[in-house]
Write the structure tokens for this entry.
Amino acid sequence: MLKKAQPIDKDAWVKLNRAFMEFEIQDDNLWNNIDKTRDEELGKVFDEALETPKLITIFMIEDQGEIVGFTNLMTIYSVWSKGLALIIDDLYIDEGSRGKGLGKQTMEEIENYARSNGYKRLQFQSEETNPKAKAFYTKIGYTPAAMSFYMRYL
């Protein structure tokens, strides 16, 4: 179901990212600085990500041979965990493919990938404005930690 992204996956990744952006931007939140019209810029981001595998790993999510989603995973060194930590930066499954257990299966495969590659911790954020995501992650055994996420675009 999960497969590491290859250059041939660029168009599918860009298309899915545009859909993901539309979903995220619908509530007029902090992600609105993204220019949704620039597919070529997203394509460059994809290419750069594939060139930096120590920092980011992109997986495509397949269902019955069709790419229906993606996940972008970032690697950091965590002093608290005494080793590498894996951050799920983005995880998106297209609307028509939700409700089939793909999210749960994707999370299980990410956990297996992390364990088999020596990661000590898996972490991610989910926006408060996405109650379905919060319910999903709680249902599959994740516990939310109350924190604030701070950022500044440079």
